[in-house]
Write a structure and sequence with these properties.
Blueprint: E1 8-12, H1 17-28, E2 32-37, H2 40-52, E3 57-61, H3 67-80, E4 86-89, H4 104-123, H5 126-132, E5 135-140, H6 153-173, E6 178-185, H7 191-194, H8 206-219, E7 223-226, H9 228-239, H10 242-250
Parallel strand pairs: 1-2, 1-4, 2-3, 4-5, 5-6, 6-7
Bound molecules: NADP nicotinamide-adenine-dinucleotide phosphate (NAP).
Length: 253
């Protein structure tokens, strides 16, 4: 693979799973990566792993649910490093709650992290990127954004928000030199999916998913849904009329 054009990157949700993998993938290819999350000890371990591979990862303790702090911290990092080239809004939270017994604390946490946190992360230094005529922002949505999945009203809707947010930004930023990528993973092994009790079709290993995501980012894809089998299924599900969709969803579990 050709040398990467990024000097610096920020990856949120880098203390585990896909974010951790993406941070390492970039750092191993010479990018200075700011790895953000709440669990400091995980980030320190990640930085040590990078150091052992002669790569550079800087831990950034950050709760993206606090939008004001997120905006301020990312602006600070941007100024300190001479401009972030790549920002990956990957931090995410997912927990099922059935509409019949909906739990507000879960709905609120999903919105705080996946909607407010992601939007703040992606907006923080966008004006600076436009000014520099350089930069790349990436949102990690989900195939769950394609329809309102059962027991996942907040999660599906939060990823649909991110998907539409990225699309509008892509249109707005055309010709500015700032690239926009939205990723739609299917099921991938991680702390988040470890809690799932149901069978997950076409489940990917974390490393496989990281490789696919990183390559899509480097190619500059505007959107990338994977694995292709699940993307194909969800593409069809998206087209189903409500009566058929509802009947199919009633049959799940
Ligand atoms: N795994 C899948 O099947 C799948 C499928 C589709 C989309 N996704 C999306 O992929 C992204 C990564 O998920 P994953 O599968 O890698 O799950 P994961 O291992 O649970 O990672 C989630 C990451 O988000 C961070 N995070 C959560 N709340 C945060 C907060 N308030 N502030 C800062 N960071 C926070 C966590 O770090 P701390 O707890 O240390 O803060 C962790 O690093 C998420 O956006 C998820 O929705 C995953």
């Amino acid at each position: 693979m050709a040398e990467l054009s990024y000097r610096t990157a920020l990856v949120t949700g880098a203390s585990s799973g896909l974010g951790r993998g993406l941070a390492l993938w970039l750092a191993r290819r010479g990018v200075k990566v700011y790895a953000a999350a709440r669990r400091r000890e995980n980030l320190e371990a990640l930085a040590n792993e990078a150091r052992a591979a002669h790569a550079h990862i800087e831990p950034v303790e950050l709760d993206v649910a606090d939008a004001d702090t997120t905006l301020a911290r990312i602006r600070e990092l941007d100024a300190a490093c001479g401009g972030l080239d790549l920002i990956i809004a990957n931090a995410g939270f997912g927990q099922e709650t059935s509409g019949k017994r909906i739990k507000w604390d879960i709905v609120q946490k999903v919105i705080d992290v996946n909607v407010t946190g992601a939007a703040a992360t992606l907006s923080a230094v966008l004006p600076q990127m436009v000014e520099r005529k350089r930069g790349h922002i990436v949102g990690v949505a989900s195939l769950a954004a394609f329809r309102g999945l059962p027991r996942n009203a907040a999660y599906s809707a939060s990823k649909a928000f991110l998907s539409t947010f990225m699309e509008s930004l892509r249109v707005d930023l055309r010709g500015t030199g700032v690239q926009v990528t939205c990723l739609y993973p299917g099921f991938v092994k991680s702390e988040m999916t470890a809690q799932n009790k149901f069978q997950m079709p076409f489940l990917l290993e974390t490393e496989e998913a990281v490789e696919l995501m990183a390559r899509a980012i480097v190619r500059g894809d505007s959107q990338y849904a994977f694995p292709w089998q699940m993307a194909r299924v969800m593409g069809l599900v998206k087209q189903l009329p409500n009566a058929l969709f509802d009947a199919a969803m009633r049959k799940t579990r």
